[in-house]
Each structure stands twice: as C-alpha cells, then as structure tokens.
Design brief:
Number of helices: 10
Shape: globular
Strand content: 15-25%
CATH architecture of one domain: 3-Layer(aba) Sandwich
CATH topology of one domain: Aminopeptidase
Helix content: 25-40%
Length: 333
C-alpha cells in the first residue's frame, strides 16, 4: 500500500525522478551528421568533376565501329613534362623537353559484362596504320593528332570500341605514387638505370615518386620493353588496389592528397566524369589477368626505327575475344 498523502505516479519524497532517455536525440544527431557528411562528399565530388581536365578523345570519325560488349577504358601515360620545374625534371630524370609529346604507356582495360576484367598492354613500338598518316609506331599517333587520333588508330587496329579515356604525364604519376604512400614491388634482380634515375636492389620494396616513375620507365632489364610493359601492368594494378583500399579511402591524409594529385595531373574525355576514374580502380581490384598483345618479332623500318610486329593470329584472337566479350584465348600472357 502507498503512504498517506502520496498519489499514484508521483515520485516519493527524497527520490530523484528518473531521467528521460536521450537515445533518440543522440541517434537523430548522428543521422544528421551522416547526412551532412554525405552531402559534403557529393558537393566535393561535383566540384572536383568540374575541375577535371578534359580532352576531345572519343569524338566521332567516319567509319567508326559500333559499340562492342563490355566497357573499355584506354589508359595512357605520356612523356609530357608539362608543369614540371627544372628541379623536378632533374629529380625525376625525365630528360627535359623531348619535343612532341608521345605516349609512354598504352593499356586497354576491358571490363566484361560478366563482371570480370582484363588489362592489356599495347606496346608503344607496335607497327600499325595511323589514319591520314601512314604506317608508324602506335605511340606516334598521339604526337601527330593527339588523343583522338590515338583512339581512332587503336579502334581500327583492334576492332574494339573505346568507351572511356584517361591520360597522365610523368609528374602526375610520380605525385600520385607518393600521395598514396608508395607501392610495394618485388624484384628478382637489381635494376640500375641512370637514364631513369633508379638504382633498385633485388627484393621487396616500396616505391614512390621518382623511383616509382623510373621503375615503370626503365628498359635496363634483360627483356627491355617486354619487362617494361610487365612492370607497368603490375605496378598499375597494385596502385589501383591500394587506392581503393580502406587504408586510403577512409584516411583523409591519404585520400585527399591522392584526389588532388589526380585533379592536377589527369585528363579524361569530354564525356567522362570523375567517378569513371573510380570505376577504373574498382575494376583493377583483385588479381585480374594482365596480358600483352602477342608479337612475332621486330624489324627496322627506314624513318621509323625499330618496330614491333604483332603476331597476326595471336593478336587477332585476343582482340576478337575482347570485342565479343568472350574469355581470353588460351596461351595469351
């Protein structure tokens, strides 16, 4: 029974009334903060997209092939020294002004409609037909007619339609490698290349800045350009995987510098958006197949130098499988 003078529901004298639960208010505050963070991220993404440098790479041309299944990204590294100071040129061992800009690296990333990906190196010395120019090394297409002529040349040679385009110069690559905290590579043998500015011991090591750039540029290995292409594919895949890792994405001290480096150094097609670059990193996650165009040998051509000849049967089989979004032929590596 209750005491006299007490009414049901009233607190007893001397007892502190129980505090009301504040959990709903805390929850509302957390939801509001999350919404504000998401809104800020979207605004930052839109602003970054507007600042991204764009080039006319995928413009129409007479006789352009129809769309092919899957999604194809042309990834280009140029020997451009644009924006580099004399000190940076010396630090990165890029050799200063080398005349007309050419493509130092050409790769095609094919993302299948089935969800898997393949990264294909296109040797820069590949002997191809450049429209309105003639037969020459594929990297000459860029210096002759820029990104659009390079895309046209590759589409006509491969029968694969390019959907997205991204390019980066020497300085940008070195800056991104540093901003991301470097990438680990494991060398079976030392690489000493004064022209590329590197002296790398055998074994596993983390490369950034000038060392990373020198590693993907060097031909001072037993197989020269063949090793160079393998190193490029390996480094790019590792770089993309690290860029998409929680340690970078969730760490503003990593993600912000990487994003700023991309904005300063990357160019994309006029129809591309910054989130397309994110899809590149996402598509390169995991251990995806990385191959090179099969070749049959090399030949000296007057006025063109030493060129690489594609193996007609092997190259045709490779490009046909990609154009049809089919599994890669056996024996391609």
């Amino acid at each position: 029974m209750g005491h006299r003078g007490e009414h049901p529901g009233e607190p007893r004298p001397g007892r502190v009334p129980p505090r009301r639960r504040r959990r709903p208010r805390v929850l509302r505050t957390l939801v509001l903060l999350l919404v504000l963070l998401l809104l800020a991220a979207v605004i930052a993404l839109v602003i970054a997209d507007q600042k991204l440098d764009r080039v006319d790479a995928l413009g129409p041309y007479p006789g352009r092939i129809a769309d092919t299944p899957g999604t194809n990204y042309l990834l280009v590294g140029t020997d451009s020294r644009a924006g580099l100071s004399d000190e940076q040129v010396a630090d990165l061992s890029t050799g200063g002004d080398a005349g007309a800009t050419r493509t130092d690296t050409i790769m095609l990333l094919h993302v299948s409609a089935r969800g898997n990906s393949v990264l294909v190196s296109i040797p820069r010395d590949s002997y191809v037909t450049i429209p309105r120019w003639g037969e020459d090394k594929v990297n000459a297409a860029y210096s002759v007619g820029g990104a659009s002529l390079l895309v046209e040349t590759i589409e006509l040679e491969t029968g694969v339609r390019i959907d997205h385009y991204a390019e980066i110069g020497f300085g940008g690559f070195a800056e991104i490698a540093s901003a991301i905290g470097g990438v680990e590579v494991c060398l079976e043998s030392p690489i000493v290349d004064p022209l590329a500015g590197i002296d790398l011991p055998a074994g596993c090591q983390v490369l950034s800045g000038g060392d990373a750039l020198g590693y993907v540029r060097s031909r001072s290995t037993p197989l020269a350009d063949i090793d160079r292409m393998n190193n490029q594919r390996n480094f790019l895949a590792r770089l993309a995987r690290k860029a998409g890792s929680p340690g970078v994405v969730l760490n503003p001290f990593r993600s912000v510098p990487v994003g700023l480096a991309l904005l300063r150094s990357m160019s994309v097609d006029e129809g591309d958006r910054i989130w397309d670059t994110g899809r590149i990193a996402w598509s390169l996650r995991g251990d995806i197949p990385t191959v090179s165009v099969p070749y049959s040998g090399f030949m000296d051509v007057a006025g063109r130098g030493n060129v690489m000849l594609w193996d007609e049967q092997g190259a045709t089989a490779l490009w046909d499988s990609i154009a049809r979004d089919a599994p890669l032929p056996e024996g391609i590596e």
